[in-house]
Specification:
Blueprint (H helix, E strand, L loop, with lengths): L5 H9 L3 E4 L3 H11 L9 E4 L8 E2 L2 E5 H7 L5 E4 L6 H10 L5 E3 L5 H17 L7 H4 L21 E7 L17 E4 L12 E2 L10 H4 L2 H10 L4 E6 L2 E3 L3 H8 L5 E4 L2 E2 L4 H8 L2 H14 L4 H9 L2 E2 L5 E4 H22 L10 H16 L6 E4 L1 E3 L2
Parallel strand pairs: 1-2, 1-5, 2-4, 5-6, 7-8, 7-10, 8-9, 12-16
Antiparallel strand pairs: 3-4, 10-15, 11-17, 12-15, 13-14
Helix pairs in contact: 8-13, 11-13, 12-14, 13-14
Length: 384
């Protein structure tokens, strides 16, 4: 079943030839997804700039260099560029120079790749007898009217607050993001700088702001847990946003929905394998040990996620506050265990390992409670 990006899917299905540019993990995952349901597409070859450092085949499909492509890849082919975003502009320009007009950028963080993964995940759930629930389809059609005789009724009686994590070192974005003016900015890592960029800071009230280097946006989540008193609360980022608006939030606040999560992220061959590829395998082992020691009831779910193909990314969620609180009560002791036994890393990308582990832990928690909570999925937007 196609839930998202129907026009793009139709175009790929009608193409005479499909080629994936790239030979790394992103290309591998894109190929696994497109070869599976609901797509069942035939990939003719993988295309690379040169054979140096690249395999000769992937999934039994040949890898072809740009020089060889002149004789093996027709100009009518759709070229799906499956690479990290930073490489996308130069690769697309090169392909244009080689005379390929049909180019489909599919970077790891791109909105389109997220939607294509959503179709795969939704079909997987349907095949396993579960329902894939989309936020837009689960909301009440209209806001309830004032019940007759209820003098205390108010259209604003349910509060919902979605915070957007901001930091004093954030990069400047050129995109107009004014449609997200309903987000409430919260400065993370505020205890680590004298510069104030938001009215709300994660070092106000009870907090762990000083841990932002490792905990990333989780210092905001901790602050929300300890200091927010809304009926619903949520967290997104300055570059990653829920594709909702004020009217949708108003309907959400009066719905039976418990939790809103973004479309899951696809990992092949498994979530655990990809984590070990991108990060530290030892950290992963400590996280699994922490679940075993602190929350043994969740160990079976943790193994399912580790060996499965999906997790909920970005530490983004909107949930009833009592559910968010319960999640945080479960999450932060596990993270503290990981922090104790993994130690502090020397800055940089891998220094944020607590945030990366938490993304997978979020999947474990909500997969474990999926029969208890009404969980729906929503599109996210990544600001380039």
């Amino acid at each position: 079943m196609i839930y998202y990006a129907a026009e793009t899917v139709d175009a790929m299905r009608q193409s005479q030839s499909l080629v994936i540019f790239g030979a790394g993990l992103v290309a591998y995952e894109v190929a696994c997804c497109l070869k599976g349901e609901p797509y069942k597409l035939k990939i003719d070859c993988f295309l690379v700039s040169s054979h140096e450092g690249n395999p000769l085949e992937i999934l039994g499909i040949p890898v072809v260099s740009l020089e060889e492509a002149e004789f093996k890849v027709g100009k009518e082919a759709w070229i799906i560029v499956a690479v990290m975003g930073k490489h996308m502009p130069s690769i697309c320009e090169t392909l244009h120079c080689y005379g390929y007009p049909r180019i489909l950028p599919l970077a790891f963080e791109s909105d389109l790749w997220s939607l294509i993964q959503g179709n795969y995940y939704g079909t997987l759930r349907e095949k396993s007898g579960k329902v894939y629930k989309m936020l837009e389809k689960e909301l009440p059609k209209e806001l309830p009217a004032n019940p007759e005789g209820d003098a205390n009724w108010s259209a604003d009686r349910t509060s919902i607050r979605v915070y957007s994590a901001r930091c004093h070192v954030d990069r400047e974005l050129k995109e107009n993001l004014s449609r997200y003016d309903w987000e409430i900015p919260v400065q993370v890592g505020a205890a680590l700088t004298e510069k104030q960029i938001c009215e709300i800071r994660d070092d106000q009230g009870e907090h762990i702001s000083y841990k932002n280097g490792q905990y990333c946006e989780l210092t905001a989540l901790y602050w929300i847990w300890k200091n927010d008193r809304s009926d619903y609360a949520g967290l997104c980022h300055y570059r990653r946003h829920f594709e909702v608006n004020r009217k949708i939030l108003e309907r959400l606040a009066r719905s039976d929905i418990d939790v809103v999560l973004t479309i899951p992220i696809l990992n092949f061959p498994s979530v655990g394998d990809v984590y070990r590829y991108d990060h530290s395998g030892e950290d992963w082992d400590v996280m699994m040990q922490a679940v075993h020691v602190l929350e043994p009831d969740y160990e079976e779910t943790a193994l399912k996620l580790q060996n499965g193909n999906f997790y909920y990314g970005y530490n983004m969620l909107i949930a009833r506050k009592k559910i968010l609180d319960a999640y945080c009560e479960w999450l932060f002791p596990i993270l503290q265990y990981c922090e104790k036994y993994c130690g502090k890393k020397d800055g940089g990308y891998q220094g944020r390992y607590i945030g990366f582990l938490a993304e997978r832990l979020m999947g474990i928690y909500f997969l474990h409670h999926e029969k208890e909570y009404k969980i729906v999925h929503v599109r996210k937007h990544f600001a380039e």
